[in-house]
Amino acid sequence: MGFFGLEPADKLAASYVAATLTLHAEGTVPNFTSGITFNRVPWMGGLKFSLDGWTGPRGEGSRPYVHDQSFKIELPSLALPSGNVIIVTANHPHGIVVPIDGLEQLQQSPSDVQPQPLPPGNTEQHIISDPTHITALFKLPFEIQASDEVPRHGTVDIIFDPQYLVMTTAGIQDKDIVWTFNSLQTGNTQVIVTTTGGIASFTKRKIYDISIVVLEPKPSGPQGGEILSFLGRVNIADRIVKKQYPDAELNVVEASLPVGASATTNPLDLSQLRAIFRTGNDGTAIIKSTGWGSWGPLEFIAQPLLGNGVIPWPVKMDIAVAVQVMEAAGYTGKFLKCTLRHPLGPSGKPFDEPYYIFEMEDGPAVFVGVNDSSVYVNQAGQMVLPEKRAA
Question: In the chain, what are the helix, strand and coil shares in percent, each to the nearest 5?
Fold first, then answer.
């Protein structure tokens, strides 16, 4: 497991040559520590960095390290008039003032490398929210999301351990920044999203604890355990929502590919779930998955979602079985998305049951009934249930 945090340093130094600031650290760290790096910390008082690294799995012993890192920066400047840099380490969590060799004429204390309190008026508010746990399947993508509402001159940064994770895409979806990751090995690691306030002096850090596991095949019967199946994941969402809204009824479940992923024939690739419930006060509760079996916070909208019937929960058919039924009917192409919903219409067939609706890459929308395995196809790709079954 790899966990991110401050690293100790026995010696720190800084130098400035040809518009390049070079920071130096050396000391001793626990074994299995990697990725030691200086990270710039936004601070209105001048130059500030933290010395961070990834440690894990925990083991006995320690090892020495030496780390040098350069930054292109123009010094001195009106915004950075000091000849010193503050470096935060595990053994100096409040920061230590380090003079910059090459800027001696600006140094406030050229020979005294001692921790110094921050100047009055430059205190920052540090906000660390409770960790969010995400279970990710090995070699299957998952997403981390953050709001794109960033204060003026603020920043959003994301940090992860490249020994465990690789970032495949990053972009804006609706009003969120979305990063898509894939795993390189099983185990536990972290992803840290840091938002700074720019003019407003605050730093907000959100930690995601990631468990990377291998999905093992399990029987589909009642005793088989479907915690990692589609039905098992939605069942967790159902329990979460009904804890807050006991009379809630399932309306829609959308299963989507991660941002940037290609069409697939494997329903496990539709890893991003969004479940929509109708509440008893004519409202709508929405919850989104954050991992394999974990869900984010509830969103409530004070109006009902129209156009869908209630899905009696639990349903009999899992999405994996629906894909098998669809392929047996001759529809073997790749799909982009699947929605579980109960279309409204006249009484009787075909509007008497919920359907898995697959949006196919080649155009059609294929409907698979959860009760009788009936297959209907809308050749125009519309989410409208035809009244005649597929030939």
Answer: 10, 45, 50
**Amino acid at residue number 24:** H
Instruction: Return the number of other C-beta atoms located less than 10 Å from residue 141's C-beta.
Output: 21
* Contact call for residues 329 and 315 (beta carbons, < 8 A): no
Q: How far is C-alpha 281 from the geometric centre of its chain's CA atoms?
A: 32
Q: Is the pLDDT of residue 112 over 70?
A: no
In the beta sheet, which residues pair with residue 275?
Answer: 253, 287
The angle at the Cα of 20, spanning 115 to 106, to the nearest 5 degrees, equals: 50
What integer pLDDT is reported at residue 226 of this predicted model?
A: 42
Q: Which residues contact 97 (CB under 8 A, 6 or more apart)?
A: 84, 85, 86, 108, 109, 112, 113, 114, 115, 116
> If you write DSSP's letter for every residue of 221-244 in order, what string do you get?
STTS--TTSHHHHHHHHHHHHHHH
Instruction: Give 62's strand partners.
Output: 30
Q: Nearest CA to 259 among 167, 165, 143?
A: 143
Selection from 216, 232, 247, 226 nearest residue 295 by Cα:
232
CA-closest candidate to residue 70, choices 16, 10, 113: 16
- 275 neighbors 286 (Cβ within 8 angstroms): yes
pLDDT at residue 83, rounded to an integer:
82
How does residue 70 score in pLDDT terms, banded at 50, 70 and 90? very high
Strand ranges in 264-381 using DSSP code E only, listed in sequence order: 272-278, 284-288, 299-301, 308-309, 335-343, 355-360, 365-369, 375-378
Half-sphere exposure of 220 (CA within 13 A, CB side): 10
* 220 or 178, higher pLDDT: 178
pTM of the model: 0.57
